[in-house]
What does this fold into?
Amino acid sequence: METNSNKSLFIAYPFYIFISLLLGVIGAVSIRNLWVGSSLGYAVLFAFLLLLQIGLFWSNTWQYGNPRWLIFYYPAQVILIVAMVNQPFTSDINLTFLGSAILCLIGESLGLFGNTRRALYLGFFLFVFMIAMLYWQVERERIWIALSNMLINGGFIVLLMVMFNQQLIERQKAVDLAESLESANAKLAAYNAKIESLTLQNERQRMARELHDTLAQGVAGLVLQLEAVKAHLASNRTERATEIVEQSIARARSTLAESRAAIDDLRAAPVSMEDSVRKEVEHFKQSTGLPCGLELSVTENQLPVETTNHALNILSESLTNIARHADATQAKVKFFIQNQTLELEICDNGKGFDVKNETKGHYGLVGMHERARLTGGMLVIESNANGTCVQFGVGRV
It folds into this structure.
């Protein structure tokens, strides 16, 4: 069965009106010829056969997709044409009717089935049938003239039908392409909305990490320093207390500046990685009073600024956790960079914690894992009653 798209391409009613008018005019002339030259009975028979043929044409508009109907339809049309052409005409009107009827059938097949093999096979069959009828109806010396006239007149119309079908096919392709583009644009809009949502979510996560690493750690450091001030004042060590207060003021200003930079996403890369690491360790020792060993080596740093920033934040978060939770008496930091390889290790001798439940309530640890994932590195945390060790690596470590 042909698809509905082929049926929609064929403008059925105007075409069948044209067939009805064409065959009706030729049929009227034929009926008059029979009535005048032969008898009323032949004229009535021809009129009946003509109405039957036109009725079959119109019936084919909704039955053509049924294979059983096609098996009946085309043989019935051929039989009707044979019966009408072989009436006792007094002129060559039968040849005109033969050519017109065959041309209508070929045009109908092109209209219904388009430029397809089915239409080609039907056209070839009808063309052979027309030649056979000419061979039967026309004298041998006139057969080539009659055939050439039919080919010239009918070939031009068939060519127009083929070109018309091709235009309809190209138009349908253009419509399908427009629908595909519209569908693609709709998908693209959906993808853009999804990307925008993911971008917003990533930005929220980034802001959460940055604010935790600036505000939370800064405030935690200030709390530790203020507790130290309180302890020194209670022991009348005012000079040491004053010194820590100055450090607290500097720390508060630094935290405020870093928080503003995080909000604006304008945090600049450190001028010197070694200085940044030493600054973090020194701040830890001043805030806690705990000894902290440092092994530091940076050679031909080829890592992206984002990677080194994430490593510094992991270092800062780890030292803050030691100060707040570990109850340690000493800590040690190893920080190595060579080309595109980074190794970071922070260890303490504190009381440790349950690594399996490390993320419950510890947003800093969650942020550390997210930073490791963003850099493509690996973060390993080992902890027991003898202390905790945080290891972070990027590249071949």
